[in-house]
Specification:
With 70 residues, this protein is an alpha+beta fold. It has helices at residues 15-28, 50-58, and strands spanning 4-10, 32-36, 41-46, 64-69. The longest helix is centred in the first third of the chain and has 14 residues, at 15-28. The two termini are 17 Å apart. The mean pLDDT is 94.
């Protein structure tokens, strides 16, 4: 199964925001991710559907934009 590296832009402004995103993604399970807080980017490696990842990220209450796979 191919896992893609998806890039999302999440309107994170502080450690608290990135902490919330981290908790959400850990709960999702089976995802590897990196967060770049200054650039407001989240990279997720997963074979889950983009919609699933998007919905999860939106639970953080932040604005989320999908930038495509890298």
């Amino acid at each position: 199964l191919t896992t893609f590296k998806h890039e999302f832009e999440v309107a994170m402004t502080c450690e608290g925001c990135s902490g919330a995103v981290t908790r959400i993604l850990n709960k999702l399970g089976d995802v590897k991710f990196e967060i770049d807080l200054p650039k407001k980017l989240v990279w997720i490696e997963s074979d889950k559907d983009v919609d699933v990842l998007m919905t999860a990220l939106q639970k953080s209450g932040k604005e989320v934009k999908y930038n495509g796979t890298k």
